[in-house]
Specification:
elongated; 289 residues; 6-stranded parallel beta sheet; alpha/beta
């Protein structure tokens, strides 16, 4: 009996010595909450295996939208495990950033370093505190293969964002900006992207003069998306917070602007104040501003 016990003792191993591939297969059957609050705290080996599951990097894809539903504690643990996952040699070809959670700068830079072959990217909420110009200058050089770039921009950062993307991403054929587009933004677009073919301004606030600048300056433009765009002149733009604008859907643009739009291969738009999505913004009766 004593001999059998010694044999069993000599053949036994610590849990942390289990094959990491087996651990990963087991951990992927768990809930993400169990992974974050349970197994990742057992030991260093289990924590490393946890970071190798599909919850962090799935093949060549990184989807971080799950962070928007995590508690602060879960988010902190997830980011630490993500840092481990990003130390691999995986080259990401798809990255989706969280909409509400701000990632640490070093994590964002690591993601950019692992996604140099990225072709399409959407950045949420470019502002002074999220993807500020100082961070864009560090990450955009890794994304110089982008052909499609979209971002939600703030009024303060839009022009800077356009210039930085234009400086580092020379292969762009599609640009999508969602925010307020006035003369300065329009001039930056045609200066930085003279060869742009497709533009997306869904749900933007737009001045007609800015649209005219883009249509005159972007000579290779074939497609523009103006669905749910609220048009206003420069004076009205200052009154956006009051929700008081004239009836200015795309159908109410000046004839010469509509003629330029009609010459494009694809022009998407809605019906302005008769559009269910946009009607909340317009008064029942157009006001004489």
């Amino acid at each position: 009996m004593e001999k059998a016990n010694r044999m069993r003792s000599s053949q036994s191993r610590e849990w942390g010595q289990m094959d990491s591939n087996i651990l990963i297969c087991i951990f992927e059957k768990l809930l993400i909450s169990d992974l974050l609050l349970g197994v990742s705290h057992v030991c260093k080996e289990w924590r490393m295996a946890a970071s190798g599951t599909r919850f962090f990097i799935a093949g060549t894809q990184l989807n971080l939208l799950c962070l928007d539903s995590f508690s602060l504690k879960e988010t902190a643990i997830y980011i630490n495990l993500l840092k481990m996952a990003l130390k691999t040699d995986t080259n990401l070809d798809h990255v989706q950033f969280p909409e509400d959670v701000i990632l640490p700068e070093d994590v964002t830079i690591s993601i950019a370093q692992r996604s140099t072959s990225l072709k399409s990217l959407f950045l949420p909420q470019i502002s002074g505190f999220r993807f500020p110009p100082s961070l864009l200058t560090k990450i955009l050089p890794y994304w110089n293969n982008l052909t499609s770039f979209e971002a939600i921009t703030s009024r303060a950062t839009a022009v800077n964002c356009i210039r930085l993307v234009g400086q580092y991403c020379k292969k762009l054929t599609h640009l999508g900006l969602f925010g307020i587009i006035e003369k300065a933004e329009a001039e930056a677009i045609v200066t930085c992207f003279p060869e742009i073919q497709s533009l997306d301004f869904r749900s933007c606030f737009f001045t007609e003069s800015a649209l005219d600048i883009i249509l005159d300056g972007a000579k290779n433009l074939t497609r523009i998306n103006l669905i749910h765009v609220i048009f206003a002149d420069e004076r009205d733009m200052k009154k956006l917070a009051t929700k008081v604008l004239k009836e200015r859907g795309a159908k109410n643009l000046k004839p010469e602007v509509r003629h330029k739009l009609a010459a494009l291969e694809k022009f998407l738009h809605c019906g302005g104040n008769i559009c269910h999505h946009c009607s909340w913004f317009y008064p029942v009766e157009p006001l004489d501003l």
